[in-house]
Amino acid sequence: MDLPQAPQPIQEDMAKLQTLLHDSLAPHLPAGKDGMRILNLACGRCDEAETLIKVGSDLTQGGAVEMVGADIRIREIRQARETHGHLPAEFLIEDATKIDQHKTLGDDFNMVFLRHQNFWHGQELWKKIFDQGIAKLRPDGMLVITSYFDVEHRLALRALEALGMEVVSNKRNKASRALNDAPGKSVDRWVAVLRQRRA
Ligand SMILES: C[S@@+](CC[C@H](N)C(=O)[O-])C[C@H]1O[C@@H](n2cnc3c(N)ncnc32)[C@H](O)[C@@H]1O
Predict the structure, then answer these.
(1) Poorest-confidence range of 33-37, 45-49, 51-55, 85-89?
(2) Residue to mutate (ligand 1; options 21, 67, 71; most atoms within 8 A of CB)
(3) pLDDT for 92-118, tens place per residue?
(4) Dist. CA 45 → ligand 1 center (Å)
(5) How many CB atoms lie within 10 A of CB 28?
(6) Rg (CA), the chain
(7) From the CB of 117, is ligand 1 less than 6 Å away?
(8) Stated pTM of the model
(9) In the prediction, which pLDDT does 198 show?
(10) Does pLDDT of 33 surpass 80?
(11) CA distance 192 to 199
(12) Which domains occur in the chain, in start order?
């Protein structure tokens, strides 16, 4: 059965995100065929599911990749389950500020991903989500955020640094698609990779 294709602009967004993620992560994620666990917090309908799994597969040279997506919005998670049922991914309806209460999730993720984090609209809430995401990482794992606009991205990075993370890559997506009626905002405008600061 042919799967429905995402609209053209989303396909183009994904092609750009794939390149950015691959280039940003390749120097930092330990190479190997051990596979990769990805936790995608506040994933919404998770347009990027296939892209993340492809990047994980490339970086592990064909290792097994699994993704867990979580969002508090029921409708979006149902949509993600329908759209991405063919992928090695599961989608949870969860409050990401309490993801530690999900006992079977584990804390051995190679990557914790937050696309278009929303720090500007709730700094204390997003600090909690970041903190919970960091706690789910393996010691050598990477946390990745993308942002719609410059100030929010800077503030989110500052908050993550205060939580013990260090930025290892921070790229401005020069080809990012502008959002209609939102000057200065664009899709995956920034992509940053962080790891736990070493003592
Ligand atoms: C700007 S949207 C980004 C959605 C998606 N990652 C994307 O790029 O399209 C922010 C997302 O954060 C989710 N969110 C907000 N608070 C949350 C919480 N406490 N736990 C889980 N998800 C939350 C919202 O439901 C929304 O899907």
Answers:
(1) 33-37
(2) 71
(3) 999 999 999 998 999 999 999 999 999
(4) 9
(5) 14
(6) 16
(7) no
(8) 0.97
(9) 86
(10) no
(11) 21
(12) 8-196 (3.40.50.150)
